[in-house]
DNA sequence: ATAATAAAAGAATTTTATTCTAAATAAATT
DNA sequence: AATTTATTTAGAATAAAATTCTTTTATTAT
């Protein structure tokens, strides 16, 4: 079910990825200057990286506080999915406040990451959204007091 | 210790954030067209959103498979920090493969999110990086089999 | 070596970003 | 309610960047 994709990135691609990972709004001209190449060449490569699905998307990281979303929680969910499906996972993914849904090893579970305004918002979500999913057997919630680091930067290889 | 910041966003700001959250490379001209405003006005607002720390950064989401990082894990870490400090959290944050570090409620713990090439890479990390942090009492690792959803999009209010 | 393929540079054109000023709107003060 | 003040937006002009196309260079395979 997993499609095998062929990537094949060289050192220049890695450099572009490194720059884009730091600031996705860096323009071609700047990247070109930094790498000592022509802007047109950079453009070609960036387009290829997008086509090859190496770069999946560009997103703006918004301050949760600015939107008054002060509570971050992780919830372990035990569920009885029909074997081989991710029915529950797909339902969980549809909830807007749920940022991540991971199918985890051991006791038929999911781990989800949820952002709500406050504790009341979390309770609401558990009652109204999770409560609607019948396959869920139990949940265990972990409240985040403070986030020290939150990035999605990958470690980019130096040599090949 | 928490700095109280004043945001104060209007409906236009929300629309800009909505667009930027979907595609951070959307240019001012396009946003202006979509919102029926002048590009200069959009530029002003985007700059202000950056200044006010509403938009924190722009990042490119890179396909972990393209960099051969196939294993995602969450690790609960029990540690004895000096009271009121996050010494361990700060040390954890320095490990490049650690994407997230959350200080969680209950038994002096952290929850971290880690991306490695494979199981061997995870073992290495636990031995070489976590192993160096003496304050760590114990760890409990959860392996992700498959990720159904992984975004950091926030729910943006419709009215105010 | 030579041909074939792919990548990069360079130049020209289109589009966008940016700056500045003026107009309009909203907020505050009297 | 009227006037002032501040904020926001539009519009025009310029600078910068994106994009396209052609030529050149580099790579790879035969």
From TrEMBL, chains A, B:
One Gene Ontology term of the molecular function aspect: sequence-specific DNA binding
GO CC, any one term: cytosol
Xref: SMART domains: HTH_ASNC
Keyword Aminoacyl-tRNA synthetase carried by entry: no
Origin superkingdom: Bacteria
CDD domains the UniProt entry points to: HTH_ARSR
All copies of domain HTH asnC-type, residue ranges: 9-70
UniProt record, GO biological process: regulation of DNA-templated transcription; response to amino acid
Coiled-coil residue windows: none
InterPro entries cross-referenced by the UniProt entry: ArsR-like_HTH (IPR011991), AsnC-type_HTH_dom (IPR000485), Dimeric_a/b-barrel (IPR011008), Tscrpt_reg_AsnC-like (IPR019888), Tscrpt_reg_AsnC/Lrp_C (IPR019887), WH-like_DNA-bd_sf (IPR036388), WH_DNA-bd_sf (IPR036390)
Keywords: DNA-binding, Transcription, Transcription regulation
PANTHER family for this protein: HTH-TYPE TRANSCRIPTIONAL REGULATOR LRPC, LEUCINE-RESPONSIVE REGULATORY PROTEIN
Name of the protein: Lrp/AsnC family transcriptional regulator
Native organism: Sphingobacterium gobiense
């Amino acid at each position: 079910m997993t499609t095998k994709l062929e990537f094949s990135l060289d050192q220049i691609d890695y450099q572009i990825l490194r720059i884009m990972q730091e600031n996705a709004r860096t323009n071609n001209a700047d990247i070109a200057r930094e790498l000592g190449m022509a802007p047109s060449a950079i453009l070609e490569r960036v387009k290829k990286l997008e086509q090859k699905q190496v770069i999946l998307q560009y997103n703006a990281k918004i301050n949760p506080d600015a939107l008054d979303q002060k509570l971050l929680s992780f919830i372990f969910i035990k569920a009885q999915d029909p074997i081989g499906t991710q029915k529950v996972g797909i339902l969980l993914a549809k909830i807007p406040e749920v940022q991540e849904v991971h199918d985890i090893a051991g006791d038929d579970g999911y781990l989800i990451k949820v952002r709500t305004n406050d504790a009341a918002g979390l309770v609401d979500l558990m009652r109204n959204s999770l409560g609607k999913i019948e396959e869920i057997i139990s949940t265990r919630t972990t409240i985040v007091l403070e986030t020290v680091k939150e990035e999605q930067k990958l470690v980019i290889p130096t040599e090949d």
